[in-house]
Amino acid sequence: MKTYGALHEVHLSQVRPEGWLKTMLEKERDGFPGHLDEIGYPFNLPCWTLKSMADGGFEQWWPYEQTAYWMDAMTRAALLLRDEHMLSRFKAIIDTSIERAEDGFIGPNELHKADPRSQWPHAVYFRAIYAMWSMTGDEKYLRALERHYMLPDNRYDQDRGAVNIETMLRTALATGNEALRQKALDNYARLQADVADTADFGYRKMLSDAPTGIHGVSLNEIGKLPAIVYAFTGDGEQLRAAEHLYAKILRDHMLPDGVHSSSEKTCGNGALNCHESCDISDFTWSVGYLLAATGDGKYADLIERAIFNAAPGAMAPDFKAIQYFSGVNQVRAARNSCHVDAFQNTPRMAYQPHHYPECCVGNIGRAFPNYAARMYWEDGEGVVCALYGDSEYAGRGLTLRQTGGYPFGETIAFRVSCAAPVETTIRFRIPGWCRGASLAFNGRDVPLTIDKGFAPLHTVFRDGDEIALRLPMTFTAHTSAEGGVYFDYGPLLLALRIRENWTIDRQEPRQTAAFPAWNVEPESEWRYAVTGGERPEIVRRAPDERAWWGACPLEITIPARRLKNWETVKKISLSKHADEGIDARQIALGATEITDDLEQTPPLPERTTIAVGLGEEERVVLVPYGCTHLRISVFPRYEAR
Description:
alpha+beta, seven-stranded antiparallel beta sheet
């Protein structure tokens, strides 16, 4: 089947994570993602194995979405870890759901509706089934997907139900099923025909400069479809639409930690704007399709920034809890600290093993397995190293073993293993933030010719060959959307190190002894301003496999001045007002309503406030954003004299 994308996805069986990336997946297994069924609803009830919701499942579509996220996350983590014991739990569910699909329809019959919301959960769940084939090569998984999608009355041409087009096309490519390919494209054509030009996913809106402001998951899941369709049709207008849509997202909503705002809709790029943990996974997954379609390394740059910053920044130590909303400035992360206006009476910014709704706790586990799965690609010339981290790739007649502890180490080493010499090309991404990159082959420098962010090395590779890619990192100051200052070191966003006091939130009903809900309070000063022209003192240590939650491998000291009049915002609880708060139905489904008075992270102060509140200069320590849970990443700026 002819395709037009620049890069081709490799099988899960070709990739093996090592170093901190393997440790992260093990923490996912041992942390709350691997134990959601022990923590509670909806993960503790049967779901995809049932043929009717009445047999003990759920009455609505959304628990199937939430459990599907979980299934995809943990199936991929187990496959990448080669953890047979862990995999057996999720494989049993997948295999049973296939065995019970006598009529071809997988899952409860109640999801077999025209309502696109009822069809959407399949788009998520089927990624787990596809992953099983990608690792095992067992054709039964592809055949089950084919049979389901080819049912005559299955249509996927509305709203998020159309996201099934993604797996329809992937399955068609794997099986060579031209009829399935055409059915997917027909559904996409109907989707576009029914969408108004003024809607976010109409061609004119995508290609215009008009801003988008819709639900973040929908934005990513549907917004990536034109790039996927381009890969199967060669229609350049589709690719232009997808690229322009994402350019607008970056322009209007991108936060310094690498993920666009979304709470629940996209909402700007100020220091107090937040994103859902769902969008960490969905943004990086969707941008991967733009990388595949274009072969442009700028999309891999976006993926790594989100994975190295936003993803660990939303997680508690050892992956035992997460935030539903997280942001670049948060000096409290407690049940009564949420500074997102529409959700101030919820604990969505606290670190908990379970949040309502349950989408984020299921979805966050997809981020790191998907990063590992997409580190390596193949194209018509050879192998493409798009994302970095200790790992191993096998294919095209050779094995590449990558070491170096990136992103905490600047030099990435590759060792080649092969039974016989192989003439091929390996392309290495040179990140857009990097200046002075260098490449050496068996100790000799290789001239860099960079095209779309990639530098090729074409030669005859032999067993034992060594490649060294050096990506020097520099300390860089940036101006934020509101005129504040944030600092990067290579791909890492930096944040003020704040001492943290963690206490168990005894009021939260959905927690266990092994996986508590936490309130986190600051125990050190956080009210500082900077000029943006600071000269740093940098201390680097060799990273260990617990780089994010062990001894921090990077500390940068800069001068800053304390602000005496920048304080947390205190409010009377919204629940004390008659017409505000969570409704009874939401509480019955597991939502927690906050009745405490609120204490929130403040906005950046006004310039006049800064000028009259400056204290003496001090030295403060910045660390990688992903190593923090409380943080100031966007600092107020004061004028140096």
